[in-house]
Design the sequence.
């Protein structure tokens, strides 16, 4: 089977093709950002541009190419509902380009979108669910001489597709809760998603707009931080393993290696402080270790 490049590699290729400088931010390190105008209201100042031509391609030709592309098959990874929303966005903004300026891809907007896609990994979203291979190829094609109307349309529609899929996932999540357990009945109003997409696209800073679609609950921020920690544990070789044996009870002796491994494991998980896992730790199951083992089980 041929090697498939990772999603982050594809995003890097897409950023290079679009002339963007994309770097991931640490989860939780970036403060909440707002784009505000007078009176503290969000400044939704972006509107679809009125262009005579894009990279030498007349606007009328580009509009025809966009209509043709939107009438064709949806990109890989997009659901039928997401593809419907992509089409609705173009209708909402006059069936014109959403990501281009007179020279080609709008560098600021493309950079913001790609940065948001990179940061989506910090929400445990599966980046391979987005049309990244096609997006990287489409943006790269624009650098191979003068682009055609169809090439411009492909790149524009793929950026809108990635934007739509990511925005929807930030609002609703990638996994249907009912697929985990029938006890979870969480429904999101379709109109709420459509409204969120339009508002996010209207904001001048696309990455900040997408950032605000994340749940604002502190518990969600804590989950993102925990994801960073568990990935660091995994990268360091995963949890310390404890040799198998009988259940440990307070005051009972056991092999020193097994007790030491248990203390190391509980310390790594945050149930014990570092002093409890030292080389001179007792050879019996003390109350703190046993209680922590019950908590961590």
Sequence:
């Amino acid at each position: 089977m041929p090697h498939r490049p990772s999603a982050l590699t594809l995003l890097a290729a897409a950023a290079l093709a679009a002339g963007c400088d994309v770097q991931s931010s640490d989860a939780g390190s970036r403060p909440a950002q707002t784009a505000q105008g007078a009176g503290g209201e969000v400044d939704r100042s972006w509107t679809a541009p009125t262009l005579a031509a894009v990279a030498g391609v007349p606007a009328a030709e580009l509009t025809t190419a966009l209509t043709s592309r939107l009438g064709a098959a949806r990109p890989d990874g997009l659901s039928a509902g997401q593809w419907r929303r992509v089409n609705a966005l173009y209708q909402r903004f006059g069936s014109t380009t959403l990501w281009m300026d007179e020279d080609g891809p709008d560098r600021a907007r493309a950079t913001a979108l790609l940065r948001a896609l990179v940061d989506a990994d910090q929400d445990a979203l599966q980046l391979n669910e987005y049309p990244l291979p096609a997006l990287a190829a489409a943006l790269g094609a624009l650098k191979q001489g003068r682009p055609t109307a169809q090439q411009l349309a492909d790149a524009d529609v793929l950026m809108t597709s990635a934007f739509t899929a990511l925005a929807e996932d930030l609002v609703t999540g990638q996994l249907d809760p009912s697929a985990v357990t029938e006890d979870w009945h969480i429904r999101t109003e379709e109109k709420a998603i459509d409204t969120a997409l339009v508002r996010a696209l209207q904001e001048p800073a696309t990455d900040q707009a997408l950032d605000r679609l994340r749940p604002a609950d502190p518990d969600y921020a804590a989950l993102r931080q925990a994801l960073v920690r568990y990935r660091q544990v995994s990268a360091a070789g995963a949890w310390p393993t404890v040799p198998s044996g009988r259940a440990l009870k307070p005051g009972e002796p056991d092999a020193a290696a097994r007790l030491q491994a248990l203390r190391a494991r509980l310390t790594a998980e945050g149930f014990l402080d570092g002093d409890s896992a030292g080389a001179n730790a007792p050879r019996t199951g003390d109350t703190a270790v046993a209680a922590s083992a019950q908590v961590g089980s």
